[in-house]
Write a structure and sequence with these properties.
It contains 13 helices and 21 strands. It has helices at 15-26, 42-46, 49-67, 69-72, 82-106, 185-196, 216-228, 318-333, 361-366, 382-386, 415-426, 436-439, 451-460, and strands spanning 2-11, 31-35, 110-120, 123-128, 133-143, 147-149, 162-164, 177-181, 200-204, 231-234, 239-244, 249-253, 258-261, 263-266, 270-272, 305-307, 346-348, 354-358, 371-377, 392-399, 405-412.
Length: 464
Amino acid sequence: MAVYNYDVVVLGSGPAGEGAAMNAAKAGRKVAVVDSRREVGGNCTHLGTIPSKALRHSVRQIMQFNTNPMFRQIGEPRWFSFPDVLKSAERVIAKQVSSRTGYYARNRIDVFFGTGSFADEHTIEVVCANGVVEKLVAKQIVIATGSRPYRPLDVDFNHSRIYDSDTILSLGHTPRRIIIYGAGVIGSEYASIFSGLGVLVDLIDNRDQLLSFLDAEISDALSYHLRTNNVLIRHNEEYESVEGLDNGVILHLKSGKKIKADAFLWCNGRTGNTDQLGLENIGIKVNSRGQIEVDQNYRTQVSNVYAAGDVIGWPSLASAAADQGRSAAGSIVDNGSWRFVDDVPTGIYTIPEISSIGKNERELTQAKIPYEVGKAFFKGMARAQISHEPVGMLKLLFHRETLEVLGVHCFGYQASEIVHIGQAIMNQKGEANTIKYFVNTTFNYPTMAEAYRVAAFDGLNRLF
């Protein structure tokens, strides 16, 4: 058994693992990364963020082609199968793997492909695909192994028509009807993707409102647009059983309903990838969802072992995971790069997309903060009209007295890009973080960013 010595060993090469490895390497530490795949990138690149967003982009282009009057003059609406659309995602994945492989090489980071587990608090044993075992000894270790879809034991995921959000990427046909169980972020995104391909979707939600953490007006807008695209949303429902047939799937609900479809997609919760890490060998315990508890420095119960990304739970976003990994390494190398990652924008890649940061109306009302609202509807924006993207709005929430921006909520075209302007202003001090900034700043015209100016004027006009 070969033994290698490092300053830092990182388990996982997704956003959190990459962030930790790069920060430690740039601080002069000798770093190794262990990943169970034969390529870097983690679930984010291979199964989650990248493929689903690439899928969404292609579907959105198809929808635009089929609804834009100019394109309709070229010919009849085009139909694309799910496997055909998935090919575009595969090309993006290959490019991402290539880029990220280059990052590790340039920073002289050793990458081991195999299953890593703790022998003790300073030793990782890596079982490679060919059966060879490598031993990595390190001063500090960062766990960044990500998560996978939660699978209840009473659902047969080996059935050819029952999928989770990982295995759905192997779907070899386009179903006429699909049941999506779980109306969280992933379920809502896939509901948009499949409905955009003309598939009838039953979206099962065990709550009474879609994505209830969002501003209520944004949640209502998403519900409306999903319904207009043949998504049937069923609230306050829980599954009793999932019955796989030769020609489809029947979902039995506790309410007594039975729903049949060609395919079934489970999108209800995720589990941390910790079961193969040998954490019992070093005394680290996980919760019922396989997640590891950390302190504000991303340190676990074992002083030299850190954790970051989806494996620690909230907020389970690729962007936050990268910053958490970088911060965990910052705690190790003490180079001033540490911060506790908490105030992050929400990006939901439905069609249309959603993004927000800060407080929503419900939270401000409950806190008895005197606020006002400013809105800009995209249907009146020149850039949205040019782009044939009239659906959506920008909503600003600000303090009535100080005019401080308290929340930014966007629904529609380029929402996940637009929100960052508001995010930057909210992080400023003094008058620079008030709604007056948008009134006293000249924006390019025509742009989607101009929505901030329109919304700011709308809000100020409500004051008296």
